[in-house]
Amino acid sequence: MARIRLTKEFSFESAHALEGYDGKCRHIHGHSYRLYVTIIGEPIADPANPKYGMVMDFGALKALVGEEVVDRMDHAFVMRRTESADEVSMVLSEGFGNVVLVDYQPTCENMLTDFAARISRRLPEGVALHSLKMYETATSFAEWYAEDN
Questions:
Q1: In terms of Cα–Cα distance, which of 126, 118, 125 is closest to 102?
Q2: CA–CA separation, 103 vs 72, rounded Å?
Q3: Whether the predicted pLDDT of 141 surpasses 80
Q4: Which residue is catalytic, options 13, 75, 87, 143?
Q5: Nearest to residue 132, comparing CAs of 30, 28, 35?
Q6: Nearest CA to 58 among 111, 14, 4, 13?
Q7: Active-site hit among 25, 31, 108, 109
């Protein structure tokens, strides 16, 4: 059977700050992220299966990425977990709510690595994550490929 790649596009709005960075991104700022998730697998060959002919239902992929990435990151302020970030998080959480502390510098590159792990562990048997592509701005993006990792 043929191996087929499926891609679904997602978007979310997030703010972050790169603590310790030596440029403008050390300040709180936001992005309109566009995330492309590509999976690979063989279409289901069992005619009795309601998903016959599909690698994975696009709705199931949407739900999975929604839970692992979009719902968590949309309209969130993302910071690397440090002593000073813990203090900032407490203050911001009281008034604004959605503060996400991560164990890495929240760059586009590191976020993709995190997203890849989150998505991969939830894919059904026989389906693998092929690649992720995420635009941070209209002209800047990062890519993650399973074959490189």
A1: 118
A2: 15
A3: yes
A4: 75
A5: 35
A6: 4
A7: 25
Annotated catalytic, 19? no
* 117-148 core/surface letters (b: 16 or more CB in 10 A; e: else): ebbeeebeeebebbbbbbbbeeeebbebeeee
Q: Is 25 a catalytic residue?
A: yes
Amino acid at 85: A
For CA atoms 60, 61, 62, 64, the dihedral sign is positive
Active site residue 75: yes
pLDDT band at 96 (very low <50, low <70, confident <90, very high): confident
Can you say how many angstroms the Cα of residue 114 is from the centroid of all Cα atoms in its chain? 7
Yes or no: say if 88 and 143 are a contact pair by the CB < 8 Å rule: no
56: confidence class by pLDDT, cuts 50, 70, 90: very high
